[in-house]
Fold this sequence. Notes:
The chain has 73 residues and is an all-alpha fold. It contains one helix and no strands. It is rod-shaped, with a radius of gyration of 32 Å. Keywords: Membrane, Transmembrane, Transmembrane helix. The chain crosses the membrane at residues 29-47.
Amino acid sequence: MRRTSLVHVVLAVHATCAAADLVLAVVWSSWALVFVGVGWAFVASALHAHHRRADDVAQPARSWHDEPTVPRG
């Protein structure tokens, strides 16, 4: 039977932990990208709404009540 040395055990544990760290890094970075994307979408939406409100104040929207009536006939 082959005898496993302490060095081999330490290297195996180290390799396993390194692989687990790599997997966790990929998972965390993907979640970070998701959060950054959602954050940018929120900021863009807020800026768009702010500019839309500013445009509405500058030029209020006209409704059909504002249109002059034209007599038919």
